[in-house]
């Protein structure tokens, strides 16, 4: 399984428009510190291609035929790219929670085949097995376990911690890699997102490797965050746009 992190930022991206915070200032100097909103491309061992969230126009970055789209939830920073992608010349199946569904996408999907789920589904797409599970967020949100013959990926955003049954599921599965919401800097409390320390601690409970994602400009600057994570955990790394993980 190949996991390509097309975008690893929060809703505003980094740098945020006109912002002069340390993270945004650094990103204007250093291109590798820039982040687009969240989107993850997963290519299985047999070539099945799954897109998880579409936070921006991904079409310049994806040449593969997309077999299915999984939405974690319907906040704009996870669906903005759908408004162009729905004009694709080939039909794409889209699975998403039913809560807070975007009216325009549902009523005018163009070439998207939208399947809304009231409860977390289990799916089989090509050689990929997918199991959704609930997360703790301001709207109905699903995390996803994505498995093929080579390994297991957990997608865990947007969330603050985990519901007990979701944590139990992830402990039982012990995914090779977990992409975990780490929106805020250490010490910041938020009801809907983890900070870096919370994300590291969460990942240590069930994943072999924790990849900290969904990073907002309210977080540490990129170079500082890399050092911070390295000093605190051998099992966690900071994501960046374009990062590729092979499971």
Automatic annotation (TrEMBL):
Residues 37-214 form the Metallo-beta-lactamase domain. The keyword Hydrolase applies. It comes from Thermococcus aciditolerans. GO terms for molecular function: hydrolase activity. It comes from the Archaea. This is MBL fold metallo-hydrolase. Keywords: Hydrolase. SUPFAM superfamilies: Metallo-hydrolase/oxidoreductase. InterPro entries: Metallo-B-lactamas (IPR001279), RibonucZ/Hydroxyglut_hydro (IPR036866).
